[in-house]
């Protein structure tokens, strides 16, 4: 035998044995817990994953145990024999993916129990009260699209541009779908899929270089529409998109804890036909003395719900304008016949004066039964005011009785809840909330039962459970979809930069908001900066 | 590298190496003159200084796309600019590496007569930093590519194909499109020296294919980004005025090795026998001494010809952030007509108790007091501190979050945002900022200390923390849209919130003086005693006199007196005015010469018509 061969025969088994030894040494079996002491408290875990209802297909819900200890032992179990046991010297508990999914899938509709033990220096294990969660029977849509942005909402950003993220809810893997970085620090928002699928989707784009456009994704094709399609909603047929055009003016408060706010200088609702590329005004809801916004279609496509308020100002010399603090939006709807392209008359669904709230962002569950809205004390932007809460209306009951009753969902907190979106099976609601830290929005998932009651929600799980603790960006505008985007980030970016945009006929009326960016500043204002030298 | 050491060894003959001497001078120049810490701070104009965070989340973010691994490493190295000494060391190492690789390339290509060019890149690098530009990533990319090129040319021809197949994609993943630069160097070398066309083709093919497969195909990078993103002509550089500064020198550094290769190639083709280097003729000392002497002289010239104004601007901002008031005033003196300098000087004068004595030694301008007018489109990165000091907490927060969007998640902003939220009692937000800050290299200690404090005081009462209590006492209470507020509104509301807010009071008085609203100024004299004034400050005395002169109104002096010296001074001023009354321009010139730093002059300067001076101040 040659020397080289001999060496090989020696080295390979030795390496194998060494590997096995290392693995064995690191592998710890279930500790002896027989003498453990019981602590009569729920173990503090972060994120708060206790007493929550979770989808059976959710990714491992890794968490941090907020207790100091030398060792942690965690056991997850349900009614079947499946269980997961983790022993860790770190308080950050990362659960194995395959056993986790097996445990959840085998125990749909049952409880998920989590026993946590900690071992202190005196070598005694301490057992805390069992955390009990509930595994729903219904899956959640596998993908979540959301936007990341710094709370300044200032798009020229170097180290964290405005992005749309595609998040796989079943394994917590993420990828950037669109980054403002790929088209000269642009802004991206209003990503809107048709019927929770990515086959047809629109994404609103703003860029100093490439203009304000809308990407229309249709299967494997992308079209870049030369129109600003703001808050929008697909007609269930997929033929038209109703959208609002808003001329938004932001402003900042001098003392309030949440200093950001915004007002629509003007807004109106129109619709875009994806086949003819024609934008059509809806006379009834494009009135110059009204502010119309947040359109959303009923599941059968027979009604367009939207929010509407009287515009009490003629100009915006003052921001906010006079009357802003009394500004409240009614929830309205207008009937529509898509075959004849005929609109009915607007009718009030929920009156702002009766609710004593401004009603915003209506979204209807795909089964057509539930209408969820934001309600705030005043104004048209629920993402900032702490008063923003989610309310639910049973549309079946409303159709039967003619009365649109609404009820505050139990998931609300003292801070803002907004930007909600239903899963395709109508059982899960994704929404943005500031409850985690008060400023940066995070995305939560809540189960809505058959009676329209929300169960305790939970923050979207991440591989690193402490990721949210140091993320100084807001994650908002969640949209749930059943599958991933078939078009790559590169293709989307290329489409944005493509000068071959689809021109559309945009009707210009008195209600057409003026683009702020087109306003020219007087020369002295343009040139004066802190770097300016004075004479 | 061995060869250069040999040269050095020969030239030394037991003495100090001349390149070493050069780089010692180089380090000292950077350390003493450039002050890399100013670059770290950003000086209001560097918006691409990278933030760096420890932990897996930041790390993973930098492994998603080509070029990001190198950016992660560069971001880490850039943090050494936090200290002058380590920053100077990083810059010196950059320069030294460039020197070494150029020396070796020249020698390898038998262009020894051009050996003196090796001092050019360090001098260019010094010039770039001397002018407070930050082309850090571009410089690193060039240096790394040149090192890789040197390694490449030392490889045997037979092993090059397999090396390229394995290395080129890896290099692309780590360095990104910079691979193209390496490929151009290698192509030139293969075509002109080795004449190995197979390797040349393979090199080119891999350099084209790797970005497409890895960048476009695998990482979904847009095609232009996949091929251009790390080059200086990328939109990420050329779209920003401050990043384009001295970009031409970066192109020079990019082109220099290629030109050397081409020159050597052309020479070898036409069989020109270049003069062998001194190192090969056995007389290395003379030439190297000559080169080093020239280089050291050039070094001295470049060091001394630094951009003084730019440095003053950076240093002003840095010292204002760190509250080094004497230095703020020192640098403000060097920027006599700059709004930001005036703004920071006003703040420094307040903190040194000289605002009411010396504020008109700086060219005051209404905009510069608070910079809150809507027509200010851009802001200094550190103006937020004035707002924080005054009690305009939300305004400070507003500018800070804008700065984060504009210049990245820099620790200097996050620290202040954490502090602001501690003042506001926002435990959750403060903890988020502090946790982010605890992942930075230099602010982690402070952040962890505050996190411990919050743990003990979850409702953020901070009763023992005098700084926070002081800030809370001064915090503005009036809550309206800031777009509706004037500078005077801010100051008025601050005094409504805390009538004992001395800074707000002095700024309000300053505002009245700057806007020449002496009626309002004299109305507020009664409050001076509440702020501990025993005597009238000089500027206030001047203002009262001007008010009396111009309005002929009586002033309730609230028990204060104008000093005889001030009255005499005013008389002299008035006599000069009278003396040149016929020629307004000459009059202003003469007044400026003698009284240019007084309120007397400021007051008369802006009026279209001179105020009538009659009567005597009592």
Written overview of the protein:
The complex is a heterodimer of chains A (535) and B (618). With 535 residues, chain A is mainly beta. In chain A, the strands form 8 sheets. In chain A, strands 1, 3, 5, 6, 8, 9 and 10 form a 7-stranded mixed β-sheet that branches. In chain A, strands 22, 23, 24, 25 and 26 form a 5-stranded antiparallel β-sheet that branches. In chain A, strands 13-12-11-35 form a 4-stranded antiparallel β-sheet. With 618 residues, chain B is mostly helical. Chain B has 35 helices and no strands. Chain B has helices at residues 2-12, 18-34, 36-41, 56-61, 68-78, 84-108, 120-130, 136-154, 160-175, 179-194, 197-218, 223-228, 235-238, 241-244, 247-269, 278-281, 284-304, 308-321, 325-334, 339-351, 355-358, 366-370, 384-390, 393-407, 411-424, 427-437, 444-456, 466-474, 487-497, 502-514, 518-523, 538-551, 564-579, 584-595, 599-605. The radius of gyration of chain B is 31 Å and the shape is elongated. Mean pLDDT of chain B is 86; it is low at 1-5, 7-14, 276-286 and 607-618. At the A-B interface, α5 and α6 of A face α12, α20, α24, α25 and α26 of B.
Kindly summarize this structure in a few lines.
Chain A is mainly beta and about 525 residues long. In chain A, the strands form eight sheets. In chain A, strands 1, 3, 5, 6, 8, 9 and 10 form a seven-stranded mixed sheet that branches. In chain A, strands 22, 23, 24, 25 and 26 form a five-stranded antiparallel sheet that branches. Chain A has a four-stranded antiparallel sheet with strand order 13-12-11-35. The chains are: A mainly beta (about 525), B mainly alpha (about 625).
Using brief descriptors, characterize the structure shown.
heterodimer; A: 535 residues; mainly beta; seven-stranded mixed sheet; 35 strands; 39% strand; disordered C terminus; B: 618 residues; mainly alpha; 35 helices; elongated
């Amino acid at each position: 035998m040659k020397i080289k061969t001999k060496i090989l025969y020696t080295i390979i088994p030795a390496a194998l044995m060494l590997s096995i030894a290392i693995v064995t040494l690191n592998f710890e079996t279930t500790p002896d817990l027989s003498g453990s002491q019981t602590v009569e408290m729920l173990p503090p875990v972060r994120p708060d994953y206790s007493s929550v209802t979770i989808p059976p297909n959710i990714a491992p819900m890794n968490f941090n145990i907020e207790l100091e200890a030398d060792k942690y032992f965690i056991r997850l179990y349900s009614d079947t024999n499946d269980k997961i046991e983790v022993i860790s010297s770190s308080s950050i508990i990362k659960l194995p993916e395959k056993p986790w999914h097996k445990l959840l899938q085998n125990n749909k509709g049952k409880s998920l129990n989590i026993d946590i033990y900690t071992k202190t220096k005196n070598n005694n294990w301490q057992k805390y009260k069992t955390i009990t969660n509930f595994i729903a029977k219904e899956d959640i849509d596998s993908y979540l699209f959301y936007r990341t942005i710094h709370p300044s909402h200032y798009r020229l950003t170097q180290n964290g541009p405005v992005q749309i993220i595609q998040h796989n809810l079943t394994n917590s893997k993420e990828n950037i779908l669109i980054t403002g970085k790929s088209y000269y620090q642009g802004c991206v928002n209003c990503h809107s899929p048709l019927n929770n699928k990515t086959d047809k989707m629109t994404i609103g784009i703003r860029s100093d270089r490439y203009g304000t456009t809308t990407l229309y994704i249709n299967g494997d094709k992308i079209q870049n529409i030369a129109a600003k399609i703001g808050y929008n909603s697909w007609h269930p047929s997929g033929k038209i998109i109703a959208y609002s055009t808003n001329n938004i003016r932001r402003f900042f408060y001098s003392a309030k804890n949440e200093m950001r706010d915004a007002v629509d200088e003007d807004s109106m609702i129109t619709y875009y036909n994806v086949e003819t590329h024609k934008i059509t005004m809806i006379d009834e809801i494009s009135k110059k003395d009204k502010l119309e916004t947040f359109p959303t279609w009923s599941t059968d496509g027979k009604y367009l719900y939207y929010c509407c308020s009287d515009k009490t100002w003629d100009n915006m010399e003052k921001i906010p304008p006079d009357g802003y603090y009394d500004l409240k939006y009614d929830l309205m709807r207008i009937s529509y016949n898509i075959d004849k392209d005929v609109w009915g008359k607007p009718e009030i669904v929920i009156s702002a004066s009766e609710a004593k709230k401004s009603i915003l962002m209506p979204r209807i569950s795909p089964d057509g039964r539930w209408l969820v809205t934001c309600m705030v004390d005043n104004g048209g932007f629920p993402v900032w005011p702490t008063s923003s809460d989610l309310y639910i209306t049973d549309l079946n009951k409303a159709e039967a009785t003619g009365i649109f009753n609404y009820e505050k969902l139990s998931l609300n907190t003292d801070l803002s809840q907004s930007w909600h979106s239903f899963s395709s099976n109508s059982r899960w609601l994704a929404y943005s909330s500031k409850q985690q830290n008060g400023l940066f929005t995070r995305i939560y998932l809540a189960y809505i039962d058959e009676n329209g009651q929300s169960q305790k929600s939970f923050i979207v799980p991440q591989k690193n459970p402490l990721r949210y603790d140091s993320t100084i960006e807001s994650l908002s505008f969640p949209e749930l979809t059943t599958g991933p985007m078939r078009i790559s980030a590169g293709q989307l970016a290329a489409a944005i930069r493509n000068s071959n945009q689809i021109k559309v006929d945009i009707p210009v009326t008195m209600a057409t908001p003026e683009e702020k960016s087109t306003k020219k500043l007087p020369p002295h204002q343009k040139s004066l900066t802190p770097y300016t030298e004075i004479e | 590298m061995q060869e250069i050491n040999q040269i050095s060894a020969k030239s030394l003959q037991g003495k100090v190496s001349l390149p070493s001497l050069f780089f010692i001078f180089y380090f000292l120049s950077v350390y003493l003159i450039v002050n890399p810490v100013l670059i770290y701070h950003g000086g209001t104009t560097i918006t691409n200084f990278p933030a760096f965070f420890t932990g897996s989340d930041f790390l993973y973010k930098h492994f998603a796309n080509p070029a990001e691994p190198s950016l992660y490493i560069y971001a880490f190295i850039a943090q050494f600019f936090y200290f002058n000494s380590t920053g100077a060391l990083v810059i010196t190492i950059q320069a030294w590496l460039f020197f070494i690789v150029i020396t070796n390339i020249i020698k390898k290509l038998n262009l020894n007569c051009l050996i003196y060019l090796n001092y050019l890149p360090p001098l260019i690098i010094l010039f770039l930093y001397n002018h407070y530009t930050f082309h850090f990533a571009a410089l690193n990319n060039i240096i790394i590519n040149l090192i890789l090129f040197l390694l490449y040319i030392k490889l045997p021809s037979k092993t090059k194909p397999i090396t390229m197949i394995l290395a080129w994609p890896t290099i692309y993943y780590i360095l990104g499109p910079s691979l193209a630069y390496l490929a151009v160097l290698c192509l030139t070398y293969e075509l002109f020296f080795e004449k190995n066309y197979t390797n040349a083709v393979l090199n080119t093919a891999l350099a084209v294919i790797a970005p497409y497969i890895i960048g476009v195909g695998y990482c979904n990078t847009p095609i232009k980004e996949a091929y251009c993103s790390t080059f200086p002509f990328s939109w990420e550089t050329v779209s920003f005025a401050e990043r384009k500064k001295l970009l031409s020198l970066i192109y020079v550094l990019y082109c220099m090795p290629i030109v050397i290769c081409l020159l050597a190639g052309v020479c070898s083709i036409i069989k020109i026998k270049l003069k062998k280097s001194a190192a090969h003729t056995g007389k290395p000392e003379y030439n190297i001494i000559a080169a080093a002497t020239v280089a050291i002289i050039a070094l001295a010239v470049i060091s001394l010809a630094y951009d003084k104004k730019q440095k003053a601007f950076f240093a002003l901002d840095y010292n204002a952030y760190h509250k080094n008031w004497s230095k703020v005033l020192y640098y403000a003196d060097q920027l006599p007509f700059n709004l930001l300098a005036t703004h920071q000087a006003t703040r420094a004068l307040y903190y040194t108790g000289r605002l009411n004595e010396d504020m008109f030694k700086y060219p005051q301008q209404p905009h510069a007091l608070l910079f809150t007018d809507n027509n200010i489109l851009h802001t200094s990165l550190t103006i937020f501190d004035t707002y924080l000091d005054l009690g305009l907490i939300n305004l400070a927060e507003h500018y800070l979050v804008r700065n984060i969007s504009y210049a990245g998640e820099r620790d200097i902003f996050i620290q202040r945002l954490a502090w602001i939220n501690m003042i506001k009692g926002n435990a959750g937000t403060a903890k988020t900022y502090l946790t982010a800050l605890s992942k930075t290299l230099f602010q982690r200690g402070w952040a962890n200390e505050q996190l411990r404090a919050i743990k003990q005081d979850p409702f953020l009462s901070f009763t023992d923390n005098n700084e926070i209590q002081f800030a809370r006492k001064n915090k503005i209470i009036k809550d309206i849209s800031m777009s509706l507020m004037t500078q005077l509104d801010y100051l008025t509301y601050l005094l409504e919130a805390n009538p004992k807010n001395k800074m707000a009071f002095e700024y309000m008085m300053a505002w009245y003086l700057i806007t020449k609203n002496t009626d309002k100024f004299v109305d507020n004299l009664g409050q001076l005693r509440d702020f501990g004034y025993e005597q009238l400050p000089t500027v206030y005395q001047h203002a009262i006199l001007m008010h009396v002169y111009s309005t002929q109104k009586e002033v309730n002096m609230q028990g204060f007196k104008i000093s005889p010296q001030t009255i005499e001074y005013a008389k002299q001023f008035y006599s000069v005015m009278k003396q040149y009354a016929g020629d307004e321009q000459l009059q202003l010139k003469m007044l400026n010469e003698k009284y240019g730093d007084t309120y007397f002059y400021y007051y008369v300067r802006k009026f279209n018509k001179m105020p009538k001076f009659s009567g005597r101040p009592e």
